[in-house]
Each structure stands twice: as structure tokens, then as C-alpha cells.
Amino acid sequence: MSCFQMATSLFLLAAMMLGGSNAQLSPTFYAKTCPNVSSIVRSVLQQAQQNDIWIFPKIVRLHFHDCFVNGCDASLLLNGTDSEQMAPPNLSTEGYAVIGDIKTALEKACPRVVSCADILALSAQVSVSLGGGPTWKVPLGRRDSLSAHREGTGGIPSAHDSLANIAARFKSVGLDSTDLVALSGVHTFGRAQCAAFTDRLYNFNNVSGKIDPTLNATYAKALQQRCPKGGDATSLIDLDEQTSLTFDNKYFLNLQNRRGLLQSDQELFSTNGAETVAIVNRFASSQSQFFASFGKAMIKMGNINPLTGSNGEIRLDCRKIN
Ligand code: HEM
Ligand SMILES: *[C@@H]1O[C@H](CO)[C@@H](O)[C@H](O)[C@H]1NC(C)=O
Ligand SMILES: *[C@@H]1O[C@H](CO)[C@@H](O)[C@H](O)[C@H]1NC(C)=O
Ligand SMILES: *[C@@H]1O[C@H](CO)[C@@H](O)[C@H](O)[C@H]1NC(C)=O
Ligand SMILES: *[C@@H]1O[C@H](CO)[C@@H](O)[C@H](O)[C@H]1NC(C)=O
Ligand SMILES: *[C@@H]1O[C@H](CO)[C@@H](O)[C@H](O)[C@H]1NC(C)=O
Questions:
Q1: Which residues form the Plant heme peroxidase family profile domain (predicted)?
Q2: Mean predicted confidence (pLDDT) in 205-217
Q3: Whose CA is nearest to atom 7 of ligand 3?
């Protein structure tokens, strides 16, 4: 071995050690052990969409709620008494049965091979692209946690947090402002319960009768009709009033018109001096820039603290440890 080769291998070894577990995620992780994994995920999701036109956004949200609690380790899917699913701010997370159907199909095709954490990451990508959004190569090779982390669900941002607070939470897991704006753009599809935003219509900042001043007045009126005071707080309202079944960049045009549904959405555009404003404008004028940034941000989010190597396990049933 030459000096140069030795230095190179020492450097590589150090890089691997410093790179930690992320180093092992790879888009071709199942190339030999489950080559058809993507098309199986896709076909189950397409089937599921026949019964529930809203299934794609539901599935994408699960990956977010998984990754923000102790990393992308499928801890969200455990359904025991300490389940993360039962802790606030779950507000109607759904789609767990479809994840179970995907797992069943994969156990048939390649038993004991594909982790539940990878199923969440892959099905998020497939759901976005079937919804009309971008495609990206999902790094794979995550393993599943041996426990849930119910106490960690407080780390999932709330729609009522300030932009500074949300940005700080994202930063603490390696996601910058561009990632935050791009990932928030996922609210271009799906729905929210009235409960997630009615304070903006009736008692903003706890002032009785006050409407959020950043809310478009005509939109506020329309929302008051859909979510009347004292009405059903679980009624579902489109996150993107124009095209809530489609993954596109209309969300950012909505923000420019003060028509973002959640306070956390509108803050990205309406917070004076925030660096997110220019990013919203950029994505509003270029869907392709939004799509490219979204794919990159999803890969970064999917890289949060995965279990790899011999850590964790490959669950046989995503709802319980083996
Ligand atoms: C930036 C911080 C975020 C906040 C404060 C937030 C908050 C919320 C809230 C309150 C809802 C409505 C839930 C309900 O009422 O049922 C929602 C829906 C949703 N969120 Fe987020 N979210 C954030 C980021 C994300 C990210 C990063 C993703 C995924 C990459 C995501 C995916 C979704 C999806 C797809 C829905 C619609 C779910 C459905 O239609 O069932 N969110 N979000
Ligand atoms: C892969 O999966 C798809 C969808 O389930 C199926 O149509 C196709 O025949 C499968 N291919 C192989 C090689 O198993
Ligand atoms: C969400 O958590 C509440 C308790 O905070 C629980 O009653 C509800 O069933 C949970 N929702 C889901 C979908 O698990
Ligand atoms: C509004 O009032 C409730 C009850 O008094 C309190 O728990 C909550 O923190 C207040 N919210 C804000 C934004 O001040
Ligand atoms: C309110 O929404 C309408 C319709 O999108 C738009 O034309 C108007 O400019 C918006 N107002 C503000 C202040 O953004
Ligand atoms: C949790 O999952 C088990 C299978 O592991 C299932 O039998 C049970 O009904 C589930 N419980 C809930 C509350 O979903």
C-alpha cells in the first residue's frame, strides 16, 4: 500500500465512523433481497386509493410524524398502551391499515426483509408522485425500533407555534429554512380538522372575536361558514382550497394571497423580515424548483437518526415488536 492509498483508506474509515448510521442508507438496499419492493408498495397504494381518495396525504404525514419522534424508526406504528398514535398532536393521523396491507404484501414477496420504517419512507415518496408530485430515489436500509417514544411526540411542531419555534425544531434535526418551506408545501394536498385553525377565525391570540389579521378576509368568511362557532370541530377542510387532491405548487400562491389554512403555513409568508418569504415567492413562481427542493428535503428528513446495521429489528407486524 502506498502512502497515498493508506491515507485514503484512513480518511474513508474516519469518514465512515463520523458519518454514523446514515452512511448505510442506500436507494439500492433491497436490489438483491426484494427487487420489486417499489412496485409492490405502488400497487397496494393504488388499490387503497380506490377506496379512499385521501389516502396519499394521510400516508405522507405518517413518515413526518415518525421521523420527528426519535428518528425514522417506525416507532409511530407501534400500537401498545404507550403508543405515539394516542398522544397529541396526532389529530387524526390515519392510514395505518394501508401500511399494514403493504407490509403483508411485502412479507409474502420477500419475508423478513423490508422494515416498517422503510415502508413509511417509500410509501411517502410513491404517494407524492402518484398525487402528481416529484419522484426521488429513497435511501433505504432503516430498521425498526424496539419501543415507542410517546413522550417524544411533543417534538412534532404544532400549527400554533411561531415560525421561529418551528424553524428551531427543524434546525435541531438538520433541516434548514429551504427544507422547512419545501416540506410545508406538502400541505398542498390533504385536509385539516376545523380544530386545527378555528382560533384564527374566532379568538386569535385568545382575544374573543378577533380574526387572525394575516388571514384573507374573504377566505376567513368562507372558513367561518365551513367551521361555525360551536360546530363540529372534526369537520375536514381542504388544506389547499384549489386543488387539495393534487400535489402542486398552488399552496405557495395561496400563501401570497393570505389564504394559507394553518397559522404555521401563513407565517412562512406573513412574518415580517423572515427568510422564508423569499423562498415562498420562489416556489410560487416555479413548481419545478419546489419539486426539486421537496425531494431533497424529504431525503434529509428521512435521514433523521435511522437505526441501521444490527440495531433494532425488521418487524414482522408493524404494530408490535417481534
Ligand atoms: C411545519 C410544521 C408542520 C405543522 C405545524 C403541521 C401541522 C399539521 C396539521 C395541524 C395538520 C392537520 C391535521 C388534522 O387536523 O387532521 C396537518 C396535516 C398534514 N400534514 Fe402537516 N404539519 C407540518 C409539517 C408537515 C410535514 C413536514 C409533512 C410531511 C412531509 C406534513 C404532512 C401533512 C399532510 C400530508 C397533512 C394532511 C393529512 C390528511 O389529509 O390526512 N406536515 N399538518
Ligand atoms: C412486481 O410487482 C408488481 C405489482 O405487484 C407485479 O405486477 C409484477 O409482476 C411484480 N414483478 C415481479 C418480477 O415479481
Ligand atoms: C390521538 O390521541 C388522542 C388522545 O390524545 C386519542 O384519544 C386518539 O384516539 C388518538 N388518535 C389516533 C388516531 O390514534
Ligand atoms: C389561551 O388561553 C388558554 C386558557 O386560558 C391557555 O391555556 C393558552 O395557553 C392561551 N393561548 C395563548 C396563545 O395565549
Ligand atoms: C384575498 O384573496 C383574493 C382571491 O384570491 C385575492 O385576489 C386578494 O388579493 C387577497 N387579498 C389579500 C390581501 O391578499
Ligand atoms: C394493535 O395491533 C394488534 C396486532 O399486533 C391488533 O391485534 C390490535 O387490535 C391492535 N390494537 C389497536 C388498538 O389498534
A1: 24-322
A2: 97
A3: 86
